[in-house]
Structure formats: C-alpha cells, structure tokens
Amino acid sequence: xxxSSLLESPEVVAVLRDVIRNPGxxxxxxxxxxxxxxxxxxxxxxxxxxxxxxxxxxxRATARANVAAGAAFMAMFDPEVDDEALSRLYxxxxxxxxxxxxxxHLTRAASVACFDLAGLDxxxxxxxxxxxxxxxxxxxxxxxxxxxxxxxxxxxxxxRVLRLNPTxxxxxxxxxxxxxxxxxxxxxxxxxxxxxxxxxVDYVRQLVGYALLANAYGVDGSRAQIDIRxxxxxxxxxxxxxxxxxxxxxxxADELHVLRHLLAQARRERNRIGARDPFLDALGVPAASRxxxxxxxx
Length: 298
Description:
Blueprint: H1 3-8, H2 10-19, H3 40-59, H4 66-74, H5 83-98, H6 108-126, H7 138-149, E1 162-164, H8 169-174, E2 182-184, E3 187-192, H9 201-217, E4 230-235, E5 240-245, H10 252-273, H11 278-282, H12 287-290
Parallel strand pairs: 3-4
Antiparallel strand pairs: 1-2, 2-3, 4-5
Helix pairs in contact: 2-10, 3-6, 3-7, 4-5, 4-6, 5-6
C-alpha cells in the first residue's frame, strides 16, 4: 500500500472527483527528448535519481536514496538473495554519484549508478528483481544524458529550502509509504519522464495528497510548521517546470476532509491486506523462480 495505490482505489476516486480540480496546462511545452524505447519506469526512476543528486551537488542539499536502501535492507530477510551483494550495489552506486562532477554533466559511471539505484528502488516498490544489476544499454545511457542536458537548473534554485525525496513523518507511515520528489521552498514538485507534456488529474491528486501530508505531519521529521501552497510538475522530456497554486486544485475548506478520507481508507486497506508489503510479498514466490545472484547483467 502507498499513497499512489490509495489514490487509485474506487472509494478514494469517488471522493476526489468532486473536490480536486485539474488546473490544466496550456500551451503544452514541446517534447525535446523523445523516448527511445526500453522500460519507462526504469528510465523515469533512474532520471529521478540523476536530477536529485544533480540538484544536491549544485545547491548543497542532501540527496538520498532511501527507497533503494530499503531494498538492500529487506533482502536480509530473504535467504534466497545475496543481501550483501545488494548492499554493495547500493553503496557503490551512491559512492559513484558522490564522486561524479554532477555540476557539469552526467558521466557514464554516474548514469550506471542511477540505473542501479532505479533497479533497487523498483525492487522495493514492486518486489520484482527484473532490473536489479542490469547494465543499461548505450541507448538508455544516451537518453538519460540527453534528459540531464536540458534540465533548467535555475528553475530549482531555492531561496531557503530544498528537500530531495522528502517524506512526511508519521503521515507517510500511516499511508504505507509516501515520498515526494522535490520540495523547493513552499512548492512540492513531481518529476515526470512521460511521453507527453500533459497535466493529468492523477498528477494533481498525488501532489495534493503529498501537500496535505506535509502540512499536517511535517517534512523529513522536522517539527517546524510548514504550509505548502504551491504545486508543480517537471516534465523532464520537455525540460519545463509547470507550477500552480494549491487553491487552483482544492479549496481550503476541503483539505481536512480529503486528508481524513485518505487516512481512513489507508486504515481499511491495512486491515484488509494485513499490512502486506510488495517486497515481502515476493518472498512467497517459489525460490526457483526468484533466486537471484546479483551480478552485473547485460
């Protein structure tokens, strides 16, 4: 369970349909880096890491890979997986990114590290080992380099606050997992490596959910009062950030109602599925079909 899965449940959709509006985006920024094939989720997740570590290098913020690290930790409970190899893969990837000249460009070593973290990230979220340790193709390397080259870095320059991959304290725990991409001052931004620069209502609902959690439970364990009133989407293939006011999507009078409904639905889901976790679910798969030797794979 996660915020994303909750937002897809019919019970939640029925409520949000009436209270969350899509402010739209016109004109749409043109696509500058088209998809060259491959797995959209793998590319999108790898680029998320590239952008966040790049922002951390430029603006002296701490870039983290908590979800990827979680995969390495959870592997300790699976006797069929070499958890030390997963941990080593994680450590090497973070080390490669910390040593890369990310303020200038994305090196091949840094690109491989981003794909390694993406494989661990997707393992933690889905329980699937498909992308763990898989070497990116030359096409994937070229594509992530092209995406990195068009990032409008100054659009993300913070006045006061820059949080990379922020979480929302007990709010994230209550929803079974909720971590946003970026918080720049009072604006939550989601990174979308999608094929068209269209503001879908699903993006808006997810951002509103993050903002409600942040305003109610704080960010990254901080007790400081926070009031997020701006939301944004970075369309990576267009190199364009679209920001809009929270009030363009939800009335203040509806915010508490929506938050309470999300928390209540999360509680019902936990009771229904017994707080199952996608990674732990994978442990129930027959060993012969999921035994993994974490070696560099072509």
